[in-house]
Amino acid sequence: MTASAPHSILPSLTPDEERHSEAASAFIRDRIVSAGGWLSFAEFMELALYAPGLGYYSAGAVKIGSGGDFVTAPEVSDLFSRCVARQCADVLAETGGEILELGAGTGRMAVTVLQSLAELGFLPDRYAILEVSADLSDRQRTRMEQLPPGLRDRVVWLDRLPETPIRGVMLANEVLDALPVQRFVVQGGRPYELGVGFADTGSSADLADPAALVWREAPDELAAATAMLRELPEPLPDGYVSELCPRVEPWLLSVGQCLGHGALLLFDYGLPRAHYYHPQRTDGTLRCYFKQRAHDDPFINIGVQDITAWVDFTRVGEAALAAGLEVAGFATQAAFLLGSGIEALVAEAADTVTSARLAGEARRLLLPGEMGESFKVMAVCRNLEQPLRGFAYQDLRTSL
Ligand SMILES: C[S@@+](CC[C@H](N)C(=O)[O-])C[C@H]1O[C@@H](n2cnc3c(N)ncnc32)[C@H](O)[C@@H]1O
Question: What is the DSSP letter of 106?
């Protein structure tokens, strides 16, 4: 996910966005009141993103792409999805079966992967999409109309994970970062959960906005973070704020149970744990995206802005092992795309104009200051013998 402007200049809301955000905010405030004045940040994030009819992903904003709030790799360039397709072709050659994409956004990756696999001669039996956002699911259906019938007919939408384990490939681009996270602050070497409350606690009379939502520290330690912090190479300083995502384990367990033979490719911005919880990363990784601007205040624009956090890939790897899967590869996005042949795809351009455009898109996907380094790819497999070409250039598994 990328956004391009300084945090300070946020565009104003349209009247419709204003109304929507007020309704979402009122709904969450009621929840805070009924919870006794304090809600964990994970609950806040769950509601702000997924509350039926009100949450960011449940309602109808444009969200993804240049006219939306943020741009993802498949939206930056089809080169990304064409590389993913090459990796899928290798796996499908061994497993046969299908592709299941989790959280397919606008459907752009699905279209390009299917077109590329048709060219490569490795079409999956079907291309299933599991999408929690009704609005994005509608956009995906519209997008599939651009496919010829032989490809379009392979696309199906699921409302839950398949009950029978599948053979083939599962894809999830920028899904893990959309799972709700807990937030904590370190005090006296111990992590205390940060939740959401109201500015007015009854003790301060001169607040600018007593009803404003603010961070509030829980009195008890966040047990889920305590053991993890103890294992870190360096202690974290007082005042250190960060996030953790306890939803990773159940998510990977349920998704992993559906994988009988093949690979799950997870793409996201994130780090191995020792880097994620580096003592100098004092403000965590929580970010909000609104109309191509990134900022760090989740308590404004509720319901009309995205809220995300970086992924602790060590946690993902551990969860995969606990789910009985194998971590078959971990690399930067740049290394994965190079291993999957992005240079050859750029070189195939038919004319100089296309060549210049593709070279520019490839730079955005590959350069360390763009998406190349901060975005990672993890391959999680079951019963797969085929080596994965996307990880031939780089093996970062020892950093996990
Ligand atoms: C940041 S968007 C990425 C969309 C798309 N993959 C792309 O790269 O453009 C996150 C996507 O994950 C979906 N999502 C969120 N939680 C999910 C879950 N538990 N299972 C499946 N999809 C989920 C959202 O609805 C959305 O489509």
Answer: T
